[in-house]
From TrEMBL:
GO terms for molecular function: D-cysteine desulfhydrase activity. The modification N6-(pyridoxal phosphate)lysine is found at K77. Its EC number is 4.4.1.15. It is an enzyme of class 4 (lyase). This is D-cysteine desulfhydrase. InterPro entries: ACCD_DCysDesulf, D-Cys_desShydrase, TrpB-like_PALP, TrpB-like_PALP_sf. It catalyses: D-cysteine + H2O = hydrogen sulfide + pyruvate + NH4(+) + H(+). The active site is at S104 (nucleophile). Keywords: Lyase, Mitochondrion, Pyridoxal phosphate, Transit peptide. Its cofactor is pyridoxal 5'-phosphate. Signal peptide: none annotated. Residues 39-344 form the Tryptophan synthase beta chain-like PALP domain. It comes from Vanilla planifolia (Vanilla).
Length: 381
């Protein structure tokens, strides 16, 4: 089994290092193969069994904790940025541009990773028409972005829909070039053919982690921009894993993502039809970043039962949809070992605090006036 992971004597100084990239043997025929990769994540991320509430004994669910990938809880975005920022630096960029929603995990991850590598970041963030000319505040991802010095450019959802993220990024790129900057554009979610290598590489990591134990029958994951599922599905199909990949789309519709993933596969000259390697189901509910009471209740119940906190935009919707499918189609999932990829996004919960059902218990501690004081370690006052 090929092994990319550092031995103890190789670990010091490895984080943030730029390294030549050697692809898995089963992916070496893809083209183009990245020449270098930055070490931005705390990898490999752990895998453990996940006993979800109401899960049948006939189905096993395990979870890969890509929410613990590092870089201020940046989740799946880290893996893509390892390749994208290596390309940005190779091209001589001094800043990066990317696009997303007002609470975009990807934009926050890009801002942090860029600052790690001494690059400035420019974030085009969608917001409502009523708020586009007002300070966006410091809730959730915005706090981290602003702490690391990101340049936030607000655009209304209406203008975004009319102009599109690609054109908006191009406009900002042209402006920065006239100012003497050297910008590098990272697409929404980091989802292009180069970014997909992040999850091709994740499949090699899963191979390494499961060797000599057992094989997963299925991989389940949220789909928001398409790059993660493209890498997972292609990697699983080419590697020894051969797990069936199930994607739960939290925006757009399955047909859009089949076409988009096909474009990424074609960009790698994979010679594979997206329909043959991934099953995509609609899980967007009310719409992107919009949560139902049921979805938020599910996030709360899972946290209370398992200690795993899901985000409301991606993994919360995907895990909820997966559980619904398991309950509705028990024969389909009977005897299966399923690996759920937790793609992160914890900070997105801060934008939902007013919608969350009642969380936790509290009370004032009852004390008697006669209780004598006892000194402990680390006297505070």
């Amino acid at each position: 089994m090929e092994e990319r992971f550092a031995k103890p004597d190789e670990m010091f100084g490895g984080f943030l290092a730029l390294k030549p990239y050697d692809p898995p043997s089963w992916a070496s025929h893809l083209s183009p193969v990245p020449s270098h990769v930055y070490s931005l994540g705390h990898l490999p991320t752990p895998i453990h069994k996940w006993k979800l509430p109401n899960l049948s004994e006939d189905t096993e669910i395990w979870i890969k904790r890509d929410d613990l990938s590092g870089m201020q809880l940046s989740g799946n975005k880290v893996r893509k940025l390892e390749f994208l920022l290596a390309d940005a630096k190779a091209r001589g960029a001094d800043c990066v541009i990317t696009v997303g929603g007002i609470q975009s995990n990807h934009c926050r991850a890009t801002a942090v990773a860029a600052r790690y590598l001494s690059l400035d970041s420019y974030l085009i963030l969608r917001t409502s028409k009523l708020l586009v000319d007002k300070d966006p505040g410091f809730t959730g991802n915005l706090l981290v972005e602003r702490l690391v010095g990101a340049n936030v450019e607000l655009v209304s959802k209406e203008d975004y829909a009319k102009i599109g993220g690609v054109a908006l990024a191009d406009l900002l790129k042209e402006r920065l070039i006239t100012e003497g900057r050297k910008p590098y554009v990272i697409p929404v979610g980091g989802s292009n053919s180069l970014g997909s290598w992040g999850y091709i590489e994740a499949i090699r990591e899963i191979e390494y982690q499961t060797q000599g134990s057992f094989a997963f029958d299925d991989i389940a994951v949220a789909c928001g921009s398409g790059g993660t599922i493209a890498g997972l599905a292609l990697g699983s199909a080419l590697s020894t894993l051969k797990a069936k990949v199930h994607a739960f789309s939290v925006c757009d519709d399955p047909n859009y993502f089949y076409d988009f993933v096909q474009g990424l596969l074609d960009g790698l000259h994979a010679g594979i039809d997206s329909h043959d390697i991934v099953n995509i189901q609609d899980a967007k509910g009310l719409g992107y970043a919009m949560s139902t009471v049921e979805e938020l209740q599910f996030v709360k119940d899972v946290a209370a039962a398992t200690g795993v906190v899901l985000d409301p935009v991606y993994s919360g919707k995907a895990a909820n949809a997966l559980m619904k499918d398991i309950v509705s189609n028990p024969a389909k999932w009977k005897g299966r070992k399923v690996l759920f990829i937790h793609t992160g996004g914890l900070l997105g919960l801060y934008d939902k605090t007013e919608q969350l059902p009642s969380v936790g218990n509290w009370r004032k501690m009852e004390l008697e006036e006669s209780i004598p004081r006892k000194e402990g370690i680390g006297k505070m006052f």
